Amino acid sequence: METVTITVDKRTDSGKKASAALRRAGRIPCVIYGLGKSEKLAVNSAALSKALSGPSGAHVIIQLELGDGKGVHSAILKELQYHPITDRLVHADLMEIDLNKPIRVKLPLHFEGDAVGVKVKGGEIRVHMRDMNVECMPSVMPQSLKVNIAELDLNKVWHVSDIKLPEGIVTREAQESAVVSCMTIKEMKEAPTAAAVDAAAPATTAAAPAAAGKAAPAAAGKAAPAAGGKAPAAGGKAPAGKK
């Protein structure tokens, strides 16, 4: 895994005015976790962006000198925040790690190869999982997980249990979770999504009394959020607002 070194400074001031002053000076507020307590830092935004622009992207080990007498600290990127309009980097969160202990990260899935179900039988690929939670030693953490789908046939679904991971990397996803499938275009159009099925169920129930000439009772409370929402990938963009 790629290792980069950046210089940071401790900061004591916080709040909008202090953060704005940092940004005018070409730096951004940063917080590192995992030191027993969080530590507020300031980092040069251009230096951080450059450190994360290499071949490994955001999946790098960042070496920091915090001036606390404990030597160099190793960390990985936890989250980046960008300005919603200018897209400028405005905040960063880091997580300190022990290079001798495994870490848990979310890595993007990179699908490669021409599926036999597409090339020979006219199917279409449907991706169900774009990122995977895994555990591995920092030294073997890749930029992404490559999944060769050349043998994926028509009307087949590959689950987490079907995905071969590199040596030293263990998945933390449910083994039965779908990752990628191949089906005909017609099946893709007709297959209802989980959200559509959930939305249709209460509508059908409420329609019955209305058909008999009675008004359907109003639904009590607020609808629960849809299950299965994705968490942002490490290093992904998040709305500004954290100081």
Question: Domains counted in the coordinates: how many?
Answer: 2
On the 0-100 scale, what is the average pLDDT? 80
**What is the CATH topology descriptor of the largest domain?**
Ribosomal Protein L25, Chain P
Secondary structure: helix percent: 10-25%
Q: Separation of termini?
A: 30 Å
CATH hierarchy, class of the largest domain:
Mainly Beta
Shape: elongated
Oligomer: single chain
Share of residues in strands? 25-35%
What is the CATH H-level superfamily of the largest domain? Ribosomal Protein L25, Chain P
Number of helices: 5
Low-confidence segments, given as residue ranges, are 194-243
Give the CATH architecture of the largest domain: Beta Barrel
Number of strands: 14
- Rg, nearest Å: 23 Å
How are the strands of the largest sheet arranged? Answer: 1-3-2-6-5-4
Query: Could you describe the largest sheet, including whether it forms a barrel?
Result: 6 strands, mixed, barrel
Along the chain, the helix and strand elements come as EHEEHEEEEHEEEEEEHHE
| Secondary-structure content class | alpha/beta
